[in-house]
Write a structure and sequence with these properties.
The chain has helices spanning 10-20, 26-44, 81-90, 137-149, 163-172, 200-205, and strands spanning 4-6, 50-56, 61-67, 71-77, 95-96, 99-103, 110-115, 125-129, 132-133, 153-157, 160-162, 178-180, 182-184, 186-187, 193-194. By secondary structure, it is of the alpha/beta class. The protein has a single domain (4-205), classed as Rossmann fold, CATH 3.40.50. Helix 1 packs antiparallel against helix 2 (26-44) and helix 2 crosses helix 3 (81-90).
Length: 208
C-alpha cells in the first residue's frame, strides 16, 4: 500500500478550517489553497535528493546544497491550478505539465480532455496536484498517464480526500505516496466529499 501522510501541522489545521468555511470567498479560498499547497509540499519534499556544490557568499566560498533531480508539477485541470503556484514558490525551477480531466456527473468516471506531455520524460520526479480526491478516478488516470510517459517516481499532493478515493489510488498505484491535509469521512450520493469544502474548482474561480 502507498504511504498516506496526513499533516498534523497546526497551520495546516487552521488554514484548512478557513478553507472549509462556506463564507470564505474566492480570493481568500485561492490564497488558502496556495498556502496549504506550500505547507504540504514542504513535507512531501523531505526525502528529495540533494548534491553539494560551491556557492559564493558575500564573505567566502562554501559548499552548499542543490536539488539533484528535475521536478515536474502536474496540476489536474482545473482545480489543481491553484496549487501549482504555491509549490513553484518552493521549487522555482520545477517544470509544469497540465493534465485535463473532468468528472462525468452520472458515472463519476474521469473523462480526459487535455494532455500535452512530450514524447519522452523531461523530469525525474513528478508531483501530481489536485485539491480533492473523491472517487480517486482522476488521480488514478493521471498517474497512469505519467507512468506511460516513463516517469518512475511520482508523488501525490491533495488537500482533502475521501477514504474511497485514497483506497482507489492505493490499490491502483501502491508505489505513489499521498500527502493530505485531511482524510474525510466519506462520499455522498453525488460523489462529493463529506464534510469536504464543496467544489474546489468553483470556489477558487467564483463559478457555480
Amino acid at each position: 500500500m502507498s504511504e498516506v501522510h496526513i499533516s498534523v501541522h497546526p497551520l495546516v489545521k487552521c488554514k484548512l478550517t478557513q478553507l472549509r468555511d462556506k463564507a470564505t470567498g474566492p480570493k481568500m479560498f485561492r490564497d488558502l489553497v496556495r498556502e496549504l499547497s506550500m505547507l504540504l509540499a514542504y513535507e512531501a519534499c523531505a526525502d528529495m535528493e540533494v548534491v553539494r556544490n560551491q556557492v559564493a557568499t558575500p564573505l567566502a566560498t562554501m559548499l552548499g546544497w542543490y536539488l539533484k533531480d528535475k521536478v515536474g508539477l502536474v496540476p489536474i485541470l482545473r482545480a489543481g491550478l491553484g496549487m501549482a503556484d504555491g509549490v513553484q514558490d518552493l521549487i522555482p525551477d520545477a517544470q509544469v505539465w497540465h493534465v485535463g480531466l473532468y468528472r462525468d456527473e452520472e458515472t463519476l468516471c474521469p473523462v480526459p480532455y487535455y494532455n500535452k506531455l512530450p514524447d519522452k520524460p523531461t523530469v525525474d520526479v513528478c508531483i501530481v496536484l489536485d485539491p480533492m480526491i473523491a472517487t480517486g478516478g482522476s488521480a488514478v488516470a493521471t498517474v497512469d498517464s505519467l507512468k506511460k510517459w516513463g516517469v518512475k517516481r511520482i508523488k501525490f499532493i491533495g488537500l482533502i480526500a475521501a477514504s474511497e478515493g485514497v483506497r482507489n489510488l492505493n490499490e491502483s498505484h501502491p508505489d505513489v505516496p499521498i500527502y493530505l491535509a485531511s482524510l474525510d469521512e466519506c462520499l455522498n450520493e453525488f460523489g462529493y466529499i463529506l464534510p469536504g469544502c464543496g467544489d474546489a474548482g468553483h470556489r477558487q474561480f467564483g463559478t457555480g
